[in-house]
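RECORD CONTENTS
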Amino acid sequence: MRRLIFVGCCAAALFSVACGSTSVAAAGQEESYEPNEADAVSIAVPERVARSYFGFVAPQILANVEIGSPDSLKTAVTQLRNPRDEAEQVLLFVAASVLQIVWPAEAGRVAIPETSIVNAYTGAIASARDGVYDTATGNADFLAKVLPSLVLITSHSRSDYYARAQADLTSALRDRADSVLANYLLGVLYRRTERFSEAAERFSKVVSLAPQCYEASLALAQVTFQTGDAPATLELAKKILQQNGSNTDVLKLAAESAFAVGDLDAAEQYVARVLQQENDNAAYVLFRAKILVLKGDYIKAASLLDVYARTDSTARDYLLLRATLQKDWNRNATAASATVERALQLYPNDADIVLAAAELAAQTGQRIGGKSASELAAQVLAADAGNVAALTIQITQLQNERRYADAYKASSALMALPDVPSGAIHTHIAVCLLANHADEAWRLASKLYDEHPNDEAVLQSYIHVLVATGRKQEASRLIAQQLPSASTSVKSFLYYERSFISQGEEAVLNDLRSSLTSNPRNKDSLMRLYEIYYGKREYRKAQYYLKQVVALSPTDEHLLALDRELTALLSR
């Protein structure tokens, strides 16, 4: 409380009365008086209080608008239904506008009232609707700091205001940390600038403050997906769907996250629910076809690709899927090669298409777009030296070309990468044996077997190394132990390996025949029988087995050369 000091004639008179003085100045005589601080009388005066534009609005109403959640804004609109003055009129306009702009799914029938009042608050909203960040609000209070950032919702065309918006929103949150609106807008800003982890923190805060807010929950799920956490995204999407089961934005997010985690059945169900509402969504028709191809449901996938082709027959994903069907379902390598070549012409630098061409070239032995599998893989590796798929293709092709030293070099480069897939380790063990690095093969295989003795792939690699390195007794024991309960494919492998340690030609031939009984398409066993009969100069029998190998790899130049040589021998 301040105290004012009054001095002068009035104060003197009061002082005289207070002291009981009776002296009076003579008529016509001027009495002089000098003010004295001792004569002063203090009077209590209230402190001056600085009031904002909304200073006379009920604090709870203003708090509801500043918190800015869908529920608090609806409450504020109800409270301000009959505004008493200009400030309440403006605040009603602000509350209704924020509800419509930021939370449209929650706005319901709330209408924005008309107003002719022009000031910093109405101006900031008008500027945001025009795609402009209003810097003229003066930052006088919380709303003046926050309202310009509504442009983050209304427009995506500019970014020159981001630093100012971050500073203003951060300042506003120092004033009111529990503001759903300010936290949400800052999360939108962080996501816009690809600061996904920080955006997720803000959206998580919003969801904790307003658990039923659909837009905030969706934003959190979307940004979680952008951080790469597909499992968490799927769980968030499922929660939202419990309340918004038909929302296509959430269904799409659920489909994409389910696909990312490998749950193809769930992904297909979500995609189907999207297509029930958007039957002309070509992208999701193609998405469902992709899922069906991965599930091996080629008939349905082919029908969907035919539907999609009416819209676009040149899309990269369409061409890749069509080539996969032609190769794996129609068994038409020529048609698949033509489709991939068309994709290469349209997308010559697309890594996925170049890889698909390399894989097809490696499988068929054909040149795709005039390039071999090795050349196509090298094209990818030139841009990405650590590309696992390209290195794997290159290694396979080098093995097929019998360039084992180069295959070992490429396989060693793959093994040096972090998080090497298990299949690459087994390939490296086989390459080590072919390239005369038996000690390394043994070290890797024995370590794997010690760690995973019941893993089928590990067991096969271990037995292969035992046989190749002359550890016949242990190999024979393991083969005998595994044969009774092994699957047909594994039995075929075990008989083939046993053929190298069996005693006598007849025992070797019996093992190889048993291998083919379990799996008639075992190329290794077929090739070994060819080699045995060729060595015995029984060319007819050798040709019988070689023809079957050629049928399995009809474009392998090495096999074709052997077949031509054998045909020439038989024609003499």
Summary: Confidence is low (pLDDT under 50) at residues 1-31, 45-50.
